[in-house]
Amino acid sequence: MDRPPCPCGTGASYDACCEPLLAHREQAGTPEQLMRSRYTAYVRGDADHLFRTWHPRTRPDDVRPDPATRWTGLRIVATEGDTVQFVASWEGGEMHEVSRFERRAGRWVYVDGEVEVEVD
């Protein structure tokens, strides 16, 4: 039986890739793994995962993904230390971001990022 691929683009199945993180069974081991799981949470509309993985100091009040946005792909450009540079695409545009992560209470959390948005 074929398992659906993970939206984050690793080529692995969802249940072998981001699903354990979104289901609270595992914690991300690296900033890239957390960033990929957060992209998957946007694709799947999982506000709980976004809330749990966002640093409380920088987290907005409303983290719910826009259900009208149809995400179409993720490309990792570079990773270095606690930063991940990526391009996330949706129907009608793409976002290029350099995200910063921090270890808090033994787990990685998203802090903030420098964003450049391009709309088709």
Automatic annotation (TrEMBL):
<dbReference type="InterPro" id="IPR032710">
    <property type="entry name" value="NTF2-like_dom_sf"/>
</dbReference>
<dbReference type="Pfam" id="PF17775">
    <property type="entry name" value="YchJ_M-like"/>
</dbReference>
<feature type="domain" description="YchJ-like middle NTF2-like">
    <location>
        <begin position="30"/>
        <end position="113"/>
    </location>
</feature>
<dbReference type="InterPro" id="IPR048469">
    <property type="entry name" value="YchJ-like_M"/>
</dbReference>
<protein>
    <recommendedName>
        <fullName>YchJ-like middle NTF2-like domain-containing protein</fullName>
    </recommendedName>
</protein>
